[in-house]
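User: Last request for today: this protein with adenosine-5'-diphosphate, please.
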Amino acid sequence: MDVRRRSNKSVYSAADEPLKPHKLSSVSPPNASDGISLPLYLTNGVFFTMFFSVMYFLLQRWREKIRNSIPLHVVTLSELAAMAGLFVSAIYLLGFFGVGFVQSALKGNQDIWDVEDDENNEKYILEEDSRRGPWPAATTLGCSVPPPPVRKIAAVAPEQPTKSATPAEKPAPIIITPASSSDDEEIIKSVVEGKTPSYSLESKLGDTKRAASIRREALQRITGKSLEGLPLEGFNYDSILGQCCEMPVGYVQIPVGIAGPLLLDGREYSVPMGTTEGCLVASTNRGCKAIAASGGATSMLLRDGMTRAPVVRFGTAKRAAELKFFVEDPANFDNISAAFNKSSRFGRLQSIQCAIAGKNLYMRFSCSTGDAMGMNMVSKGVQNVLDLLQSKYPDMDVLGISGNFCSDKKPAAVNWIEGRGKSVVCEATIKEDVVKKILKTNVASLVELNMLKNLTGSAMAGALGGFNAHASNIVSAVYLATGQDPAQNVESSHCITMMEAVNDGKDLHVSVTMPSIEVGTVGGGTQLASQAACLNLLGVKGANRDAPGSNARLLATVVAGAVLAGELSLMSAIAAGQLVNSHMKYNRSNKDVTKA
Ligand code: ADP
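Assistant: Here's the final one, the structure of the complex with adenosine-5'-diphosphate:
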């Protein structure tokens, strides 16, 4: 870091000085270059070029050796020659600049290196260093060649690479974009120097797009890494302010594919899936086709309640148990729910389930949340209840509003058994000829595979809610497309897939039971333009004014229906031994990746 700081000002002058005739004429101590009859700038140019070309060559060779596992001590003739060249040019450059530096220091010249010795500046460098930490920036073989020192000046002075640049002077991958105005350039510098906190840009500038642009540029300069490829334009940064993402520098693009129509409960849905896994949409689409050809799937919502479980502590286990009995007593429910329900028009307390660990009590509050996924809503309600309980139990010590008995974004049996969010079961009877013609397998093979893989295999693996083939693939893809919280894929993907031969063993009954699908159609990422468009496609965008909560519930059934389709198709591919072939077709590009 200090090298970068210093170089901001120094490298130009150190490199430029020899070009100034008045400097050369008056020097008395000899420079290393004095004995060379060529013009000085030419000599310097030759040695500079030689130094960096050879350095570049050696780095390339070093990288190849690491990649091909060739021992570093095995040296070829060309490498030996390159090392000699590096040595000679280094001696020259060291002599030239070293002597020049000592000389100017002795003369007391007020050059740039003296500025670096300034006490304030040193303090500033230390502050800057401590802000970034002492560690080098992350690097990847083949992505980032250590930039030659002269490039470092680009951190403050954007410059275009000259056409005649030799390989050694080839620009490092960092792309310094000139700021759109001198004002912006000043702010970028201020962020780079740590004087303006990056997080404060939005509030200071009052312009979210400009803030993102400045932060992005500052980040590139600080890290020396290019963000080319991560788009900045074409996104509404106002829409994420204060609710979806802090300190944005761009946005990641995820392709959205459509599976369907999914015929579910007598209606057709085109299911948007955000994914980069080849084959996934195609496979789910095939499952939808099999379901539709068999008359469609049916879903039932079994339960709808978001949970939050604070942890509170008492002086004794007895006191913790007393509170447990209090909150579980039906006679107290009205009081508690009145406090809980104050927080929202939509949050309605349903139940409180308690668990004790010694003196600690975990109270798992469950409530309906309308069309919101509901984490904020339930948390606000729980806070109200804690305030109420505190007045009755002044010795209650609230350790945390979330005590992990909820349980959010972690695999936990409580969600698998009790449910969280929406609990849905979805089924279909797939006709014998559909299994043959569309799924390319037969009922007996599917039933046997399901028993041995999804049930027995998962039991052998000690699975927790993972009695399925790939529910999380479909859940994650639909969540990304529709603005759900992708981290809740953990419990939302809990699923048991059942398959059974019916109608005298001719047809296949298939079902998925998913106890904790956590979705919403308001709040969070659902209101962003792209995600809202996908919700709109499903007919569940935003709040349902006539029947609050029905949009979110419908979305949960669509998720389960899409999982049913995904399970059918993947299980069939495995039963028919097609899995590897289809993945080689859709998941491996035929393109020559080296040319891409
Ligand atoms: P979450 O609780 O999922 O984190 P938010 O708190 O971000 O969700 O969003 C819910 C907000 O949307 C609340 O302020 C709520 O009052 C409002 N809202 C409007 N209509 C509805 C609805 N039909 N269902 C649920 N919330 C709604």
